[in-house]
Amino acid sequence: MDSVSTSKKTPSKSMIWLIVILVIAVIIAFLWWWNYRKYISTDDANLDSYRVSVAAQVMGPMVRQYAWEGDTVKAGMILAELDSSSIIAELQEAVARREQMIANLKLEKENLNTAVKNLQLAEIAYHQAEVNYQRDKKLYSTNAVSQETFQDAEDSWKSTGIKVDMAKDQIKVSRAQIASGEAAIASADAAIESTRVSLGYYRIIAPTDGVIAKRWSLPGDMIQPGQTLFTINEGKDLWVAVYLEETKFKTIRLGQSADFTLDAYPGLTFTGKIFYIGMNTASEFSLIPPNNASGNYTKVAQRIPLKISIDSVKKGKEKTGMPKLVSGMSATVKIIKEQ
User: Fold this and answer.
1) Among residues 268, 250, 269, which one has the least CA distance to residue 259?
2) Looking at residues 59-67, what average pLDDT do you find?
3) 96 — phi, psi (to 5°)?
4) Which of helix, strand or coil describes residue 111?
5) Average pLDDT of the chain?
6) Hey, CA dihedral for 296, 298, 301, 306, is it positive or negative?
7) Across residues 53-74, what is the average pLDDT?
8) The dihedral of CA 223, 226, 231, 235: what is its sign?
9) pTM (2 decimals)?
10) CATH of 85-200, one of 1.10.287.470, 3.40.1190.20, 1.10.10.650, 3.40.50.300
């Protein structure tokens, strides 16, 4: 009798377990269907923000670094310095050349004053020679003076006229040299200002407020023009960067609501709206964009970038304060389908 009763009980327990498993499977299937019907889900998402790359504009070894990863910086703060000894020497040389030009200009102005005085003397001599010539001319016509005396007076008058012309030409030359000297000084001023501006490039300045997210060099490194030295995370505006499969893109619209969770805060649910939809798939701007010209082609689902705002956060069903968020945190997003 005992063996018969045991065999009767065993099938009934197996049936109960089978029913329980079926019920659980149905519940899981229902939840999946409910979630699929209401949400577009993806875990290819993370927090993102604006980042600024700070690069060098000149070449030189880094000699000092004032900011490190995690430091908060303000716009205009000096982050690092490059060796500027060569450009300082160029600046000193340019200043010395300018001083020499100023001294030469003063000399040219003195030469101009001398040329003006020489012209005055030449004009006096010319007028005196002209008077003597006119007088001897009249006397020669009456044979009161010899031909030799008259000829000397005429030659003196002509030579003094030439000296007047030469004095005028010298004044023109002096004025041209002064104008050239003033232009050279203006050019030297521009060169000095340009060198001073270049000297400023040897100081690496923070272009915006933020936090040093990454430093890419150390003191002693030889820096090249255009080389990124720091990456600053502004941290003012954070959003969720989502890369959604193209097969789920059909019903996506701007302003569509979304819920998401962060791996860092599993008990919190964040809400936001789609405020950006990319016009290209993410692969279009990858380092190695797809090229199917060779014929070796494997079709994969492309992903379209979206941006979702971070509007509020709830713990359960009640709103709570916004926790500390950091760019790069992983997120799981559920975009609410529009009915």
Assistant:
1) 269
2) 95
3) -65, -40
4) helix
5) 87
6) negative
7) 93
8) positive
9) 0.64
10) 1.10.287.470
